[in-house]
Design goal:
single chain, 49% helix, Restriction endonuclease type II DpnII-like domain-containing protein, 5 strands
Length: 311
């Protein structure tokens, strides 16, 4: 398949905003307020304990105070999803992530001070407006972008296996005609063994401090090394990663195709990139490297699917 034609096919088949493969939903509360689960029960217990601490402050013995702080500590750090509570989010006001408090050596002493500040700054306000368990889901949704690590791998797996290519296992012969593996998701050793066996230099890895590609596909006598990035919008940090994936196309080896797979709506900016933009330069570089290295490919979701059909 001609690599320029495939890139232009990708440009004509834009990335969709609502791609089910990129959905990162994580439900932490029940769909009905009539039913409660553990996060809801724990959140309500936490609120009640903070209310008790507020009401009883100055009336507690040291032992009672320690016990109450201990109960709050136990709920916060011995249960899942408590980083989504209103109290845990308040920690950021003091530039203290939930994880930092969790790992603090003198945690309970610090927690006591933070609870007092929270009661003064937030608890009475939230009580007046009405606490809601919805906050747990709202925060879970807000952190969805941090769950992107496995989403890209899952998307690659879905497309590759749909094309009838099976995953490599340790007991398989590395000269088997057709298989795939994920070097960056536990398959590093196998990938290095395969590179050694088939004299694949993969110099890109050495230029990136030993970074592994996202996927390797072998269908004898050819191989495809795939680097995938999901990008949802512009910005300096995003563009630097576009440059990185475009640079992937510079490399060439006998019987090996380097495949740069960019999905997410940032890809669509390549379609009508203005002549004075960074994306325009990236687009020109893509064409340049594809012309030089005819075995390499730059694709989006539609292009990746079509490439797999031709393998």
């Amino acid at each position: 398949m001609d690599n320029i034609d495939l890139f232009e096919y990708s440009l004509k088949n834009i990335e969709q905003i609502f791609d089910a493969a990129n959905k990162k939903e994580k439900l932490v509360i029940t769909k009905s307020s009539k039913k409660k689960n553990e996060p809801i029960r724990n959140n309500e217990s936490l609120i009640n304990l903070i209310t008790t601490y507020h009401t009883m402050y100055g009336k507690l013995t040291k032992i009672q105070d320690d016990e109450l702080i201990g109960e709050i500590d136990s709920i916060l750090f011995n249960n899942e999803h408590m980083n989504y509570t209103a109290f845990s989010q308040y920690l950021m006001v003091w530039d203290m992530p939930y994880s930092a408090l969790r790992d603090e050596k003198e945690r309970k002493q610090l927690l006591r001070k933070l609870i007092k500040k929270y009661i003064k700054d937030r608890h009475q306000m939230y009580t007046s407006h009405g606490y809601s368990n919805i906050v747990l889901q709202v925060l879970a949704d807000n952190y969805s972008h941090k769950r992107g690590g496995s989403t890209g791998a899952n998307k690659i797996i879905m497309f590759v296996e749909r094309a009838g290519i099976k995953k490599y296992h340790e007991d398989n012969d590395i000269d088997k005609d057709s298989f795939y593996l994920l070097p960056d998701k536990g398959g590093k050793k196998y990938f290095k063994d395969i590179c050694k066996e088939h004299n694949i230099n993969f110099k890109w890895s050495r230029s990136k401090q030993g970074k592994m590609p996202d996927c390797y596909i072998q269908k004898a006598p050819n191989a495809w090394i795939i680097e995938h990035k999901h990008k949802k919008g512009g910005g300096g940090g995003q563009y630097s990663q576009i440059v990185e994936i475009v640079d992937f196309l510079k490399y060439t080896e006998k019987n090996v195709s380097y495949v740069a797979f960019l999905d997410g709506i940032l890809f669509n900016e390549l379609i009508n990139a203005s002549s004075d933009t960074k994306m325009s330069k990236a687009k020109k570089d893509i064409y340049k490297y594809l012309k030089i290295n005819k075995n390499n490919y730059f694709v989006n979701t539609a292009g990746f699917s079509r490439l797999l059909q031709s393998i």
